[in-house]
Specification:
Blueprint lengths: L14 H8 L1 H8 L9 E2 L10 E2 L9 H27 L6 H4 L4 H22 L2 H5 L8 H8 L5
Parallel strand pairs: 1-2
Helix pairs in contact: 3-5
Length: about 150
Amino acid sequence: MTEDLYGPTSLRRNDTILLRESKINSKFARLQEGSSEQFIIMGDSAYKKNTHLTSYHAKRTMIRDYIKWNKSMKHVLISIEWNYGTCASLFSYIRRPEKFKVLGSERVSKIYTVATLFRNFHVALYGCQTSKYFDLPIPENMLSHYINQTNFTS
């Protein structure tokens, strides 16, 4: 499921600026406050490592453990791309960039946000490629839990 959508923002912003402005690291840290298990987000290698965000290790630091880490994380990073692919297959409208040329960026972001919300509903009901790949069953009451726990106004 997609947990956080940041934007819309200018295309002139680079990934590092967007990462900082989105505050995703601190949001993820707050979500896990008081939990004995701490999770991290796998991001692009362009991102600076944070307490709850990591990426591949640079080639200059390649020791045996890092080589294993990079290899295992490659599969995780690929699964991130499935989110957009599933959203685009469920809602073919977002695969048609010519439809967006006449729209303002705010409207495009709203369309994508709604498509992502509906994709999350779909995942809560039926699971997804990621949950099957990592053998993570979706709880029976996932949709009602998702709706009750989501702040749809922010």
